[in-house]
Amino acid sequence: MTALYRGSAVTATRRTLAVGRILYNGRTMKSYLELVDCHTLGPRNDVTPLFADRDGFAQLANDLAEPFAGKGVDAVAAIDALGFVLGTAVAERLGVGVVAIRKGGKLPVPTVREAFTDYSGTSKTLEVRPDLIKAGMGLLIVDEWIETGAQVSAAIALIEQLGAIVAGIATICMDRCPVTSALRDKYAVRQVWSEGSRVASAESEP
Asked: Domains, the chain, ranges and CATH?
């Protein structure tokens, strides 16, 4: 993904900048999140300015990785495409490798695939090399933004059908909808665009 969804199909929220801090539903959040461009031409926000800022991106990666340090993460499962950028940085903090969860048809080798329908109603697939995921491995899933939860659910299905364990989910924001609420109930979720969601440490991020 190259940007973040702002449409009414998932959580429709007002995002306001105030004196170098972001207010979200009345909550003050990390100042580096002001680098996310909320004033785009389409219905999605753009995180690439945050990724381009060395200090802000480093702090984002640290904040997402910190709750999972020493928690049995053997590798980061990074979701195509901007999840690759963020997931690689998180993996470096945790001292582990990256398993690339690709969009369907991208890998030139035999793969395991899982179909899903994205936020726009388009049918897609994710795929992974099965030799990269071993039974019993702990995998931290990283994507830059989780909208409907369909794509991350497909990644979970790939990991679990290969006998590995989802150690948690790390993202800038996980929007609220029935699917993502179920994911929060089942897995440790770390996000920095906070709604007071459950995170790996069971504490909310200010």
From this structure: 54-191 (3.40.50.2020)
Question: CB count, 10 Å around CB of 123?
Answer: 9
CA distances from 98 to 78, 139, 161, 181 (A): 7, 9, 19, 26
Single-letter code of the amino acid located at 24: Y
- Global pTM reads 0.84
| pLDDT at 4 (0 to 100) | 47
Task: Enumerate residues 6+ apart whose C-beta is below 8 A from 29.
Answer: 21, 22, 23, 192, 193, 194, 205, 206
- What share of the chain in percent tops pLDDT 70? 80
Percent of the chain at pLDDT above 90? 74
- The answer, yes or no, to whether the previous bond of 3 is cis (omega within 30 of 0) is no
